[in-house]
Request: fold
Amino acid sequence: MKKTTYTPYSADNDDIDFGQQLRVIWTNKYKILVALLAGGILGAAFSLASTPQYRADAMLEIETRQNQILTEINSIFNNQTTPSEAEVELVQSRLVLGKTVDDLQLDQEVKAKYTPVIGSLMHNISGDPDPKLTVGSFTVQDEWFNKTFTLTAKSNKAYTLTLPDKRVVEGKVGVPLKINNQTTLKIDQILANPGQEFALTKFSRISAIENIQNKLAVISKGKTSPIINLTFTGTDPKRTSVILNSIADNYVAQNRERDVQVASSGLAFISEELPRLKETLQDAENKLNAYRQQSGSLDIPLESKGALESLTGIETQITLLKTEEAGLAELYTPEHPSYKAVLDKLAVLERAKNKINQQIAELPNTQQEVIRLTRDVETNQATYVQLLSKQQELNIMKASAQGNVRIVDYAYVPENPVAPRKAVITLLSALAAGSLTALWLMIRNRMKNGITSSEEIENLNLEVVALVPHSKTQQKRDFFKSKFKKTGGRSNYLLASEDRTDTAVEAIRALRTNIYFSMLDAPNNVLMITGAAPEAGKSFISANLATVMAQSGKRVLLIDTDMRKGYLDRLFSLTPEFGLSDILNGKAAPAKAVQETGIENLHLISSGSYPSNPSELLMDNRFNELLANASQRYDYVILDTPPVLAVTDAVIIGQHAGTVLMISRYAHTRARELEASVERLKQNHINIKGVVLNGMKREANNSYDYYAYDAYHSGNNKS
Reply:
């Protein structure tokens, strides 16, 4: 084995190897498949536990015709609006939805209670009918609006009620339960097993309306389309369709009522105006006749007749517009476009009227008076006739009011739920679980700080003398050991003795061969095995290497020099009376501390009792004498030492060793730790012969390494 020189470790590689990531996924395919299966099962369970949601739909048509008043106004001022835009808002208004809340008592809610997830899942799978609770009447005090009452069925005739303040009262079916002056409850029917719980909630009117708004969708087919689609989602298919049909009916009813209200307001105005106008007309006629008799018959000039006719027409229009204004005042505020259009037209007509009056004022007094009196007669007469006609028109309109909306399709009871979509949820849950697992595995692989390949060690200019694969047999035995805690959490399974065909043992045999040749030129036959940090597996390598050496016919002495946490005696199932600490303290002779292990040619000196000064004991001359005598009596002396970075023991022991091996553990020992350990040993003139990468796993980073012989070994097993 060549002598190695140390070169500091440099930069890490930040490039992403997509091929390596794919190998990570392929290597862990069974983990990902398990995640897919688990995600699918959870998704299926969630979908089965979820309450089915049903959707009912209805269709409305908005006719383009409107009442005559609004049509005329909009045509004059080009104030065309899209009917459906306003109607969509009206369908969702509190005016319409509030009527539905009142009609169907939607301000109260009853829900059967189950154990979260599991209870709902078991109920849905069982196919049992849903528990039913019929509430006759339910009123609460203001402080208990939107609060939950819990009703527990005792039988079909009795129940207990838990109030929001945690008080419990008892009630009977069919008998009103008065809790206080404002809170009463009457249950008409209970169809449920004893012990079944229900959640009762009394909503405020505004909260009930908001609940409906959240479940109602109103969609216009387009700005110019007269079609509006309504959809409502709920858990009860029958009730869902009933609610939606109620909303549609109430909307159509309010639309019809709107026309009736306009007609009624106009009729009220005309009814008040006609008697006064008739009286005014008679008075105007009397005054005109009296003036003609007094002044004689007077002819009105041609230009004055034109002004008189214009003035008469304008005043007639003003009167009619005021009638229309009275109707619009019942529906809109003065800021509404339709209302504002009427006011604007009235202003225009008033200005035209004032202009004509100024022209008339320039005529002689006699003509002015005749024109004035004639104007009063003709204006009042025309207005009176128009109002009579408008009265008849509004009476017809009121009697035959149908609105401009009709229901094209009523809602039917939906047969199939729209949610949850079990297949989609199951598939998406499985894909999400699998994807997240794969992502986590790739991130974990990417962010591993420990050494995962021999190349990382070689980058430190250190020779890798062996790659010891992870032993599944050892793992299984350690797993059962950890369950029963028989060895204080440390392994008591000697792999080289119990399972000689394990791939890890084969790798250790290869290490044994390398050591035979590398120690030919060593100053002594003492082999020190150490590591950078705890849990690198140096005791595992030491014990199993000593075992395979002994199995080859060599006399081997294994010394546990870790007088802080040494446990090799337990690994060999020994209970020695004396150990290394006792030898170095002078309490026992070496011969008394040497123990037979049960393996031919292999002896052990345990760590002994844990002293308070292990480092000082190792510096005693007794340790040097022990190793000198052991070197003469044995072919190999193997020293299992504490970690280099943990304590100084390894540096002291290394002064006596002819060969030093460093143990690093796959994905556990960091390159920086190995780097620092080598530097510390080098500073004390200790050169390591090589590094053993222990616990190699079949992952993306080590696609070859030791698996060539692993496959060869597995393929040659014959039953």
Notes: The chain is about 50% helix and 15% strand.
